[in-house]
Write a structure and sequence with these properties.
about 260 residues, alpha+beta, Fructose-1,6-Bisphosphatase, Chain A, domain 1, D-Maltodextrin-Binding Protein, domain 2, 2 domains, seven-stranded mixed beta sheet, about 35% helix
């Protein structure tokens, strides 16, 4: 079995190769999955296929848990890659250049390596278990500021419209309590913004594991906290969940805000 550092190098190399498909995409057509806000393109599928091919060769016998339905292997495998080929597909479809390729590597239920790559600005956020988080090779850390001195990144769970009223109520509370709100359409990149201290926290009421798996390790290794909106641990079993991530003080302040 390759070392975690070697696996991370294989992940980032595969991401950079796959990103060329995104950067040179044209004539992008979106297909509806579960609703008009939940879409997929041929490029999501091509990026995922390339990642599976490259990472499967790097770690023979590895399992894959991917957003697009072709691979949903067991998350309890000895080695599993959790992949969101294009996180921020709606941004991608509309030419709003804020999307990322997100890959996490997990062994026996523990996240060990992660990378989130935004090819439009060539930012690669990475983390290795116990070795910290980095942006383009330089160490990053979460902000120590309280919520009152922080930007707040949020997601609106667009695939779950029944959560809209409660979500926007919480966004309003966060806007009043913090400096301002940012809603940019990529959970993976929002988590990385929190990890890098650009935002104090990121939250969303409903996400999938492939949206946040890489970000969970990156935030944690940057010294931050990750949990559900009720403060309980995030699951790694593939179920949908709420998420809150960021600097310790801002997360604590936000949890108090939720309870009000």
């Amino acid at each position: 079995m390759p070392e975690n550092r070697d696996i991370l190098e294989k992940i980032t190399a595969a991401q950079r190769e796959a990103s060329e498909l995104m950067l040179h995409a044209h004539g992008i057509l979106a297909e509806i999955k579960t609703g008009h806000r939940d879409v997929v393109t041929e490029f999501d599928k091509k990026v995922q296929e390339l990642l599976i091919e490259r990472l499967g060769a790097a770690v023979p016998g590895a399992a894959f848990f991917c957003e697009e339905n072709s691979r949903r292997d067991s998350l309890t495998a000895d080695s599993v890659f959790i992949i969101d080929p294009i996180d921020g597909t709606m941004n991608f479809v509309h030419g709003f250049h804020h999307s990322a390729i997100s890959v996490a590597y997990m062994a026996r239920g523990e996240l060990l390596a992660a990378s989130v790559y935004n090819p439009y600005v060539q930012e690669c956020f990475t983390a290795l278990k116990g070795e910290g988080a980095r942006l383009n090779g330089r160490p990053i850390a979460v902000s120590a500021q309280p919520l009152s001195e922080s930007l707040v990144c949020c997601g609106t769970a667009p695939y779950s419209p029944e959560l809209a009223e409660s979500t926007f109520e919480l966004i309003k509370r966060a806007f009043v309590a913090g400096l301002d709100i940012r809603r940019e359409g990529s959970a993976a990149l929002d988590m990385c913004s929190a990890a890098a201290g650009r935002a104090g926290v990121y939250f969303e009421p409903s996400v999938s594991l492939w949206d946040i798996a890489a970000g969970m390790l990156i935030v944690s290794e940057a010294g931050g906290l990750c949990c559900r909106l009720d403060g309980s641990p995030l699951p790694l079993n593939g179920s949908k969940t709420s998420v809150l991530a960021g600097g310790e003080q801002a997360v604590k302040d936000f949890l108090a805000l939720v309870k009000k």
